[in-house]
Amino acid sequence: MYPANFEYLKPNSISDAISLLHQYGDDAKLLAGEQSLVPMMKLRVARPKYLIDIHRIADLSYIREDGGEIRIGATTRHVEIEESPLIAVKIPMLREAASEIGDLQVRNRGTIGGGLVEADPCGDYGPVALALNAQMKCIGARGERVIPAVEFFTFAYTTALEPDEILTEIVFRLPAKDSVGLYVKLEKVAGDFAIASAAVQLSLNASGACREIGVGAAGGGTVPQKGATVEALLRGKKIDAGLIEQAGRLIVENAEPIEDMRGSGSYKKKALSAILRRALTEALRRAESARTA
Questions:
Q1: Phi/psi at 110 (nearest 5 deg)?
Q2: Which residue from 235, 282, 234, 275 is spatially nearest to 252, judged by alpha carbons?
Q3: Residue 137's beta-bridge partner residues?
């Protein structure tokens, strides 16, 4: 199908884009990498009257280290994250997630901001943002604010952004040097959205007990979930097979997966539990290797 008629607008700056959003309200949508919104427009699931293209605004595309943080502009493309030497060294989990998104064409066009704002319950960036406690920097008509990742996703395809706000930057605090992270995903076919996925960032103390841990997961409901109960279970303890099994049960305790062509609710619960256990097992192996290196 073809999209419904719309007016194409190309602002030259963030402030111009915000003014257009404020002017046209719910009739307007932002366009960044075109990989999420355009397919929905072709299906006429989305029918914006005004399309505001922000992908050429230079101030929104960058990857840089600043004061113990990695800052990524919202229109930075997946492939730029996947191929960034800085990301590969500092936050390899984020690189792993970027490399799992779609195919090469999607990764060359799609953006991290678009992926997060789309808020697909099974998207790849959500679990990583939650595991790393990312901060979402937004700018709107009322000024600038920061939304913690745990408050950003409010429902399927819905975020805490106001109608006239733009996600401009994603901020990740650098993990400790001896911390390890990974992203694990179960998908029906390569490049598909996840049936279930898990992101784990883990560091051990001198005695081998869990010093710090961050857990994010997708596939358990209408939003990616912060594994706070799993983090509380494992923090301060020596992680073993028994605790990992318990963590697998905890992550699905309140899960209500969306039943679709990728599987039933009961299947997705089993998949989520298994994926988290696999991620924790591998994270523990890597952390022990890092500690003894």
A1: -70, 155
A2: 275
A3: 146, 169
Length of the chain: 293
As beta bridge partners, residue 172 has 70
Pseudo-torsion of CA 36, 274, 171, 102, nearest 10°? -30
pLDDT in tens, the chain (293 residues): 677 787 888 998 999 999 998 898 888 888 775 656 666 666 676 777 888 888 888 889 999 999 999 999 999 999 999 999 999 999 999 999 999 887 677 777 789 998 899 888 988 999 999 999 999 999 998 899 999 999 999 999 899 999 889 999 999 999 998 999 999 999 877 667 789 999 999 999 999 999 999 999 999 999 999 999 999 999 999 999 999 999 999 999 989 998 888 889 999 999 999 999 999 999 999 999 988 76
| Residue indicated by tokens 């997060």 | 116
Number of neighbours of residue 269 by Cβ within 10 angstroms: 20
By the 8 A CB rule, do 74 and 168 touch?
Answer: yes
